[in-house]
Amino acid sequence: MCIMKGITERQREILNYIQSFLRENAYWPSIRDIQFHFGFKSTNAVMGHLRALERKGILSRIPGQARTFKFAEQYEVEFPQQNRETVSLPIYGSIAAGYPDQIEASGEVGRLQIDIETAGIRPGQNAFALKVRGESMMDAGILDGDTVIIQPGLAVDGDIVAALIDGETTLKRYIQKPGAIPYLKAENEAYPELYPVTELLIQGVCKSVIRHL
Question: What is the pLDDT of residue 143?
Answer without folding.
Answer: 93
